[in-house]
Every structure is written in structure tokens, then in C-alpha cells.
């Protein structure tokens, strides 16, 4: 069923004449007649009002047109890029508008063409550029209803940036809800909003929390690569990952324990007695200050729980106990310094 047939069907179900519908929408009766006969399409910004008037969803109104394929969408995007280079902004806008009137329920196309229009205003002088705002925002908002998570995320990101540029920070903030709470970009964008709003302490705290969380993620990733390298017996790569972990801990000012602990497994696998002893001593001394990162200027606006001394004592005891494991560290039993260490 074409969109005109859909409009006619539900208009008649509401016992509404074309003239009555036109009056309610602020258009002419001939315009409604053209829609219903398939001679023209409703303006894209009229879709929501039409759906409300007919008491139907946009999905119902737009069910006449299926999703375009990725290849078809790409052709439209390339054509839009060509138009924007060869024609005036106004001409490109008119073409985009007509295209989206023909494919109004293709959320990805709506977002991508609107993004092209929006972005161009950042790189070239467009007369009366704000008159295009409503159309661009409407395209982004409709893309938010997509069943495709990537499209919804992209549309929310575009709306966030649009309102941030406009200085409407609270409005920009509302679109962060479309980002997963586990998505670090949500936190980064929230910090940017705080900064723009003059909430510098909140901005500091949010950036620092992000920094601290990212250290843990990157460290875990490097450890994962190290384990794969060890399984593949790629000792050169394994060593590189250990060095990266050490550098990472220094960069993020995590303290001595985190800087050296990555070396222990590699040195143990190589039965490098000197390095094992050196690292073990560093770890035991470093564990006393395992929360040293709390005093780093990188995290001054964060709140950390005080670590109970008994917990630190227990960690140290467990570490010493692990050093006494014959299967893992049996090769160290002839090292006098090692024997003195594990007897502490």
C-alpha cells in the first residue's frame, strides 16, 4: 500500500473529508488530493502531524516503503556528496528533502543525508543556515526510532553534538541516555557537557573516573594479549606486552606494585631467578602502598574508600604464601635471598 493509499484509508475511517484534513494540517485540499493519488509526497516534516491526526503510528503511515539496502543507501550518500560539491547548499537541501519524502522510513538514509547537510554548515558559509535546523533535527529524531542500534546511537550522537554547538547543554545531555552506561563515550560526553555548563568540579570528577576505568580496561587487554602470546610461545611479543603494562601503570600513576607485577609471570616462565627475586621484593614493598594512586594529581576529585590495614596484611600474606608454591617457584629454592624473603 502506497503512502497516499494509507492516508486515504485512515482519513475515511475517521470520517474526514480531504478539505477537513487539509484545514487541520494547514495545507490545501488539492495537496491532500495529490498525496492520496500518488502525484506527490507529503513534506517530511508533515509526517508526524499526519500520523497524529489519523491516530496511527509513523510505522503504519510509512509501511508502504521497505528499508533500502546498504548499497542503495551508499548511492544516495555519494550523490549527496557530489551535489554538495557541485551545486548550491539550497539545491542540495531540496534534493535531500525530496529524496527523504520518497523514502521517509529509511532511518539510516535519513540520518546520513541529514548529517551531510549539518556538517557542511561547519565548513562553509551557508546563508540563513539556521532555517535548515528544524528539518535536520527532525531527520535525526526520526532516526532515533530505528530498529538498528547503530543508527539510533549515531542519531543520538548527532543530536548531542547539534545541541552542544547551539549552547543548549541540558538538551544535549538528554540524548546521552541512548548510549549504554558501559560505553565510555557516554561518560566523556557527559564530562564535556559539565565543562560547557561551568560545572568544572563535576567535569574533573567525570574525566578522572573515565581515566581510572580506562586504565583497568587497557591493562586487562594487554594482559589478555600477553596470555595469548605465551600460549603461542611468542616470547618477544609477551615481553613487549609486559613492558607496555609497566609503562601504562607509570603513565596512569598507579604505584610501584602495578608497575612491576606484570613481570613476575614472564620471569618465572623463563626461570630468571634474579628478576623473579627483584620483582617479588618490589611487589611485597609495593603492596604496602597499593592504593598510592589515591594521592595522584590525576584522581584528586575522585573519592576512594580507605583500605583496611588488615586487608593489606592479608594480601601480603597471600602473596608470600604463593611464593612458597613448590611447583611454581621450586627453581628458586637454592636462591638464598628467596629463602629469606618467603620466611618473612
Outline:
The chain is mainly alpha-helical. It has helices at 3-13, 18-25, 29-37, 47-53, 58-61, 70-86, 89-102, 107-123, 133-143, 149-165, 169-174, 184-196, 200-231, 235-251, 256-269, 273-286, 309-323, 326-329, 336-342.
Keywords:
344 residues; mainly alpha; 434 Repressor (Amino-terminal Domain); Serine Threonine Protein Phosphatase 5, Tetratricopeptide repeat; 19 helices
What share of the residues does DSSP label as strand, in percent?
under 5%
Extract low-pLDDT stretches: none
User: Could you tell me the radius of gyration in angstroms?
Assistant: 31 Å
Specify the overall morphology. elongated
Helix content: 55-70%
Return the string of H and E elements.
Answer: HHHHHHHHHHHHHHHHHHH
Number of helices: 19
Helix/sheet category:
mainly alpha
Major sheet characteristics: none
Q: What's the end-to-end separation, in Å?
A: 83 Å
How would you name the oligomeric state of the polypeptide chains in this document? single chain
Per DSSP E runs of 2 or more residues, the count of β-strands stands at 0
- Structural domain count: 3
Give the mean pLDDT: 92
Amino acid at each position: 500500500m502506497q503512502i497516499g493509499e494509507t492516508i486515504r484509508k485512515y482519513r475515511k475511517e475517521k470520517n474526514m473529508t480531504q478539505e477537513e484534513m487539509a484545514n487541520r494540517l494547514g495545507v490545501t485540499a488539492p495537496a491532500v488530493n495529490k498525496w492520496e493519488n500518488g502525484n506527490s509526497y507529503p513534506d517530511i516534516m508533515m509526517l508526524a502531524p499526519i500520523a497524529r491526526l489519523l491516530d496511527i503510528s509513523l510505522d503504519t503511515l510509512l509501511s508502504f516503503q521497505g528499508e533500502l539496502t546498504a548499497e542503495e543507501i551508499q548511492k544516495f550518500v555519494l550523490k549527496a556528496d557530489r551535489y554538495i560539491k557541485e551545486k548550491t547548499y539550497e539545491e542540495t537541501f531540496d534534493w535531500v528533502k525530496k529524496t527523504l519524502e520518497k523514502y521517509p522510513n529509511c532511518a539510516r538514509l535519513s540520518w546520513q543525508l541529514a548529517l551531510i547537510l549539518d556538517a557542511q554548515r561547519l565548513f562553509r558559509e551557508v546563508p540563513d543556515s539556521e532555517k535548515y535546523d528544524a528539518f535536520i533535527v527532525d531527520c535525526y529524531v526520526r532516526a532515533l526510532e530505528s530498529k538498528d542500534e547503530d543508527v539510533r546511537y549515531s542519531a543520538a550522537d548527532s543530536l548531542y553534538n547539534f545541541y552542544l554547538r547551539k549552547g543548549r547543554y541540558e538538551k544535549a545531555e538528554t540524548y546521552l541516555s541512548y548510549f549504554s552506561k558501559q560505553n565510555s563515550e557516554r561518560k566523556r560526553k557527559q564530562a564535556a557537557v559539565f565543562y560547557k555548563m561551568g560545572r568544572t568540579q563535576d567535569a574533573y570528577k567525570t574525566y578522572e573516573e573515565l581515566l581510572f576505568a580506562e586504565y583497568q580496561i587497557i591493562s586487562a587487554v594487554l594482559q589478555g594479549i600477553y596470555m595469548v602470546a605465551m600460549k603461542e610461545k611468542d616470547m618477544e611479543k609477551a615481553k613487549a606486552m609486559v613492558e607496555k603494562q609497566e609503562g601504562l601503570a607509570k603513565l596512569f600513576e598507579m604505584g610501584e606494585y602495578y608497575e612491576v607485577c606484570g613481570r613476575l609471570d614472564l620471569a618465572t616462565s623463563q626461570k630468571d631467578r634474579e628478576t623473579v627475586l627483584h620483582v617479588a621484593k618490589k611487589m611485597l614493598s609495593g603492596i604496602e602502598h597499593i592504593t598510592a594512586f589515591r594521592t595522584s594529581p590525576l584522581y584528586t576529585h575522585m573519592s576512594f574508600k580507605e583500605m583496611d590495614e588488615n586487608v593489606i596484611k592479608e594480601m601480603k600474606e597471600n602473596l608470600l604464601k604463593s611464593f612458597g608454591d613448590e611447583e611454581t617457584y621450586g627453581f628458586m629454592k637454592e636462591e638464598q635471598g628467596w629463602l629469606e624473603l618467603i620466611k618473612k
